[in-house]
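Reopening: structure tokens for the 1-deoxynojirimycin complex, inputs below.
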Amino acid sequence: MKKPLIFLTGILLLAGLSSLKKGYKTPLYKDEHAPIKQRVEDLLKRMTLDEKMMQLSQYTFGLNDNPNNIEREKSTLDPRVGSLIYFGNDPILRNEIQKRAIEETRLGIPILFGFDIIHGCKTLFPIPLATGCSFDTALARKACEIAARESYLSGINWTFSPMINIARDPRWGRISEGYGEDPYTTSMFAIASVKGYQGNKNIIDSLHIAATLKHYIAYGLSEGGRDYTYTDVSRQALWETYLPAFKAGVDAGAKTVMSSFNDISGTPATINKYLLTDVLKNDWGFKGFVVSDWDAIAQLMAQGVAKDSMACAQKALMAGTDMDMLDGIYEQNLKELLKEHRVTMQRMDDAVRRILTVKFQLGLFDHPYTPVIPASQRYLQPHARTIASKLAAESMVLLKNKKNILPISSSVKSIAVIGPMVKDSFDLMGAWRGRADVKDVESIYTALQEEFNGKISLHYAKGCDFDSKDKSDFDSAIQAAKISDEVILFLGEKNGWSGENASRSNISLPKVQEDLIKAIKEKTGKPVILVLNNGRPLALANIEPDVNAILEAWQPGTLGASAIAGILSGRINPSGKLDVTFPLTTGQIPVFYDMRQSARPQSGIYQDLGTNDPMYWFGYGLTYTTYHFGKVKLSATSIKKKQQLIATVHVTNTGTRDGEETVLWYISHPEATISRPQKELKHFQKLGIKAGQTVTYKFVINPKAVLAYPNDKGESILEAGDYYLMVGNQKLRFELRN
Ligand code: NOJ
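Re-run output (same inputs, fresh job):
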């Protein structure tokens, strides 16, 4: 009986040995210890054309609640799909789909799950436009780290954030998603976000996720602020205004880039080979992948550059768009296009290689499943709440404070609190709410009650709706104001008035809100404090004279209400400064701080405004203390191009409250071969200064990094001549020599 057994064992052993020889051992791409590059190449060699096409495709999974991007829920999912936008936060469900990809497909390639985590997942931070006003990049980075952790534990490995489109037209609703009008500020927040989402070194083995720099590029220039429209942008403007933040994000290690919807001077971003391949991938050495925006490849037909879906796929792939978000056009057409030699295998492989590389870098091959921990440990942890609260406070900007009416004086015993969002916290959340729940967002009314804790009585009236003709509640608002010492009006915009596809032709407060302010002022004469919650700069000229104070509180997220209450009471000293200019009227748009000088600076003024100044410039913001700036010192007044110049300024907190002050350093270059903006922000620093304390701010001017500017080919030009350094109200000349 023993012999056949030995015989069988022998056969099995031999079969085993020969299968090893034939390569039946664990494939190299599954070897956790092999270098990523080799793993990618090994896997690529094994893939069929269909498998490759699937890697280039992204679909959705879960209940899609984005009104602009509705898609049928996929009941039958091809688990070979490259990526899914995951409209959910259940790691178990996500793992079930992932299990199908790992166990039911030939090669077991994991799916990359992405989602729009724009300013927080479950813990909502202020909208990015508000975060920019904090000028606190370290704090913004922590917020992104928390958003990454909450997302990762929800099953999301990739966020479509940061949105770093420079925006100078507040009619455009998506201005709320970025960091304002300035290329330097946006670049600094781009770096902070990428590092926050992705972590320092390796994304693997951590609670980090891949970031996306979007939307590449110049999307904020959409004509008239109408979303998705044409953008007429010169190469000069691309290089000096729109590209720098993307370059900063790429250098910070961003794993992915999303191309934008817009047609850029005749070549839509999705098929813009110059931008996607020549600049991004070849010049900048970007090794990650480019995902299209939602349905943007199919939309090339509407944009008049492709006659059918075959042409769309061909142009997008060959220009450098690696992954097709949602429209299925790659999956449907690439095989045929290859057969007709209209796309190359080499370009397809390059796209697949890039996507696989990111998946390996995320550790998805070795750890495809999301660890499942109770939701109570995933979200809204104490650290997350602390950061959300601090960031909300730092992002708010005190715009007006006549006779120091704020903080509310101890003599005030009663306040009328009026406005449509006082008791409804939904509109404090802002557009793109991640996976946040309104029930987790404290209302303004509750926060005020907690803040004043019975010491001040609150008289509430809704007053009006955000926008309606109904003034029936004006009387109760006036009544509440009459019986109170002061009035706080909470007005502004609904969530849905900014964000994607949410442009406004008039950026004043709606008429009913303006009428409410005026009615209260006229009928009661009580001091009025206006608190604004909105997702864009507003044109406030109509009502500014009627109010004693204005606090721009933006859409501040989960912990925003208590930050508002803290600033009103004086518990928090406001420190935010505007990252975007507030025009006087909608007709004054565009107005931004780094405009070029006009040929006749004293003329060309709107006759009906009498000025070209806006309501509030970029960089403006008040505080409850006072700062004295000492004389700025320069280490030299003339330097050579290879030398450095060091500027320092002592700032003293001369008031009685501790504060945080951001010093903004600008450069101007009045005579250049290509004219320069009137001034450009080149450095900022925010420091805490205790009452009575003096601190020193420093700016190291490295001419190559600070004084050089790009031409329309992106070449850097550094010119000898006179320069000016501007800080506070000081302006210092220095010379750059060859
Ligand atoms: C369209 C938006 O433009 C983009 O920002 C977003 O990331 C995608 N939809 C996915 O939701």
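Residues 39-361 form a domain with the TIM Barrel fold (CATH 3.20.20.300). The chain has three domains: 39-361, 385-588, 627-737. Marking as resolved unless the reporter disagrees.
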